[in-house]
C-alpha cells in the first residue's frame, strides 16, 4: 500500500481500506460517474488499494470529453469570426475539433478568452457593446446554474450582444443508458457529489430500484471516495440496491431549490449527443423558449460543419467503461496530452489524461 | 472545471441586483455570486463552482478540504491561468 502515506489522514484511510477488504467476499465492478473522481482515484492509486477483483470502471462524467464534436466545430467556426469575443473555460482550449482546437483559432487571430466564471463573459459583453460575446456553456448539472444565471442576467439587463453556445449534459439519463447497454458490466455507481449538491438525490432511488444497482453519492477527496466505495461494497455484499449519501456535508436530499428553480426557467430537457457515445434521449439541456434568442447556434448560422474523428481514437469505449485508456493502441504513442487525438486525453478529468499523468510509465512497460 | 472548492465569505455586496461576495480560498480571493445561497452570511463557508456558490458547508470540513487541496496543488490548478496551462500542455514556451 505504497500510496497510503499520501492521504491527509493515513490512519483513517487505512481503516477504510481495511474495512473494504474485510467485507469483500467476491469480485465487484462499480463505476465512478464523475471525471473529477476518476482523476482522484488514479492520482492517489485508490483502485490499487482495493481487494483483488474490486474494479473501478471509469464513467463518462467529464463534460469536456463528451461535448459533441459538432458543437466543438461550431465553437471553432464562431470563434474565428471577426467581431466575436469567444469565452470559454480553460479546459476547452485544447479539445480537438475535426481539424484544430480553440488554442489554434486564437493563434490564428481569433479573439478567444478564458474566463473563470460565465459572469465574466457577460461583463465583457457589457464593456464591448460593439462586439458579439459568446460563452461556451458546457457542463453537468453542477455548472448549469452558473450558465443559467448568466443568461437570466443578460435578459434582465438587456445585454443583446451576449449569447451562449449550450451543450449541457445530465447524469441520470447517462446512468440509465449505461445500464441499458448490452455490454454493461457495472454493478454499482458512485454518483457525483456536486451534481447532487445542485439537483439533490430525488432521481436516484428509482434508478437504483429499476436497475438493481446501489447508487452512493460520493465526494471528490481521496477519503470521500474510499468511504463511497466502502458503502457501495457493503450494499453489494448484502444484496441491497439503494440510494445512499456518503457526502452529506455538501449534499442535501432536496438539492439547492434556488438553483433548481432558475434551471427550470432557463433550460428545457432535450436529446443530446455525447461525443464518442452517441445520442442519449433526454440527456441534455437547451435554452427554453423565453431565452432562445440568446442561443449562439441560432445567432450564428454556422453551416458546413463536417465532423471527423480521429480513426485511431477509442475514447467512446473509454467513456463507457468498456476499455481502459492504456488498452487503446494510440495511448502514449500517437496520443499524448501534447498531441491529443481525443478529448479524454485533454481534460484533467479525462481518463486517458489521468492515466497518462500518473501511470503511463508502469502501463507502457506492461504493454 | 468540474471542481467545486470551499471558500469563506469575507464581504457581501449587491451588484446589478444580485448578491455577490468577496470569497477567500485559502489565500486566493475571488468574486462569487451568492444567488443560490440566499441565506449565506459573512464568515460562512460555501462550496463554489465556476464563480457560483452552490451549497453552504460547515467550517470544520471546509477548512480540512482547503488544506487538502492546498497540499495537492488543486487550488493552483483551479485558479491558475487557463491560457498558461493550455500553452504548457501544448508545449509552447512560457514567456
Ligand atoms: S489514448 Fe488517445 S486515442 Fe486512445 S482513446 Fe484515449 S484519447 Fe483516444
Walk me through this protein's architecture.
The complex is a heterodimer of chains A (367) and B (95). Chain A has 367 residues and is of the alpha/beta class. Chain A has a domain at 2-64 and 171-245: HypD, alpha/beta domain 1 (Rossmann fold), CATH 3.40.50.11750. In chain A, 41% of the residues lie in helices and 19% in strands. A six-stranded mixed beta sheet of chain A has the order 4-3-5-6-11-10, with helices on both faces. Chain A has a five-stranded parallel beta sheet with strand order 2-1-7-8-9, sandwiched between helices. In chain A, helix 1 runs parallel beside helix 12 (222-238), helix 2 (35-43) packs parallel to helix 16 and helix 8 (144-157) crosses helix 13. The longest helix of chain A has 17 residues, at 222-238. The model of chain A has no long low-confidence stretch (mean pLDDT 92). With 95 residues, chain B is α+β, with helices and mostly antiparallel strands. In chain B, 31% of the residues lie in helices and 38% in strands. Chain B has helices spanning 59-72, 74-79, 82-90, and strands spanning 5-15, 18-25, 28-33, 45-49, 52-57. The interface between A and B is large, with 50 and 41 residues. The complex binds iron/sulfur cluster. The site of iron/sulfur cluster has 16 residues of chain A, from helix 15.
